Amino acid sequence: MDGLEPGNSIQIQSYKHNGQLHRVWDTTTVLKGTNNRVIGANDKTLVTESDGRTWITREPAICFFHVKYWFNIIGMLRDDGIYYYCNISSPFVFEDGAVKYIDYDLDVKVFPDMTFTLLDEDEYELHKAQMNYPKVLDKILTNNLEYLLHWIRQRKGPFSPEFVDQWYELFLTYRS
Where does the chain bind Mg(2+) 2 (predicted)? Predict the structure, then answer.
């Protein structure tokens, strides 16, 4: 797919259901890009919030996006292991040099021992009411949250023991 060739630099753009830009990661290196999925990596990249505030990521991260699943997964390599941050979101689209998705507030934080915590349920309920999420969307998101939790429990896909390490090794070849 044009622009998603390995080694290319892309942005990641997160939106809210109402179309408002939520957050932008300035540079992510494409490790694998197809019509169905994007695996990217970044380290110490600039992140801009919707209110203009900025911050820099602290550690290397491997990002997984798929057109079939209503979630994306970020594996962060820290000194004490791999932590995952999972966003319940729309499937991604790639346009104008950016992976774009709608963030639906619900998040799952996964610890190195594969225990996890569901985050931002209150924010989800608030935005669901404010932005009038259709019932069918609520059902899709709930089903995909269950699917994501199954992946975590089964250590499937990005949660398999070697996934993040293998992609991080490839990322290092682009940085040298």
Answer: 105, 107, 120, 123
